[in-house]
Amino acid sequence: MSAPALHSVSVRTARPADEEALGELDRSTWSTLHAVVPRPRPPYDPFFDERHRPDDFLVAEVATPSAVGPGGTCIAGYIRLVPPTPLACNAHVRQIQGLAVATWARGAGVGRTLLRAACAEARRQGANRITLRVLGHNTPARALYASEGFAVEGVLSGEFFLQGRYADDVLMGRSLTP
């Protein structure tokens, strides 16, 4: 199956009005490939809360087909970018704590666009380093991160017990300075 042709992918900061769409995207993309929490079940928790604020998320949008109406957009994915700790000595680092791309948008560069936008936003916020954690068996995500300059900086072997098997927690990071 070839990647869909998505034209005019744009990235913006999430807004409170995105909560329903982002919650649905998050639930629809849940997978044992990346999730360390059980599959969400109703009643669903809010997508945004005091620890997950709209300002923490970048959202990828694509133009909707003209049949839907002029100027319309649809959310194709999100990435969450936050300081890894509240410590002043760690303020130069940002961490990616979540990346999701709608099934219909996969393979079209949405994840790469979000990753690059997160790096640019981290730089704008004054960070000179960005990190993330990814499950060892999530080969597609690890390949994407490596292709964007992230290197494995540590592995917590067997850190999670998921569906009867141990899974590694892989720590990856990269510099944001030229």
UniProtKB/TrEMBL annotation:
Q: Does the keyword Lyase apply?
A: no
Keywords tagged on the record: Acyltransferase, Transferase
Q: What is this protein called?
A: GNAT family N-acetyltransferase
Single GO MF descriptor: acyltransferase activity
Name the InterPro entries on file: Acyl_CoA_acyltransferase, Bact_Acetyltransf, GNAT_dom
What Enzyme Commission number(s) apply to this enzyme? 2.3.-.-
> What is this enzyme's class at the first EC digit?
transferase
Annotated ranges, domain N-acetyltransferase: 9-177
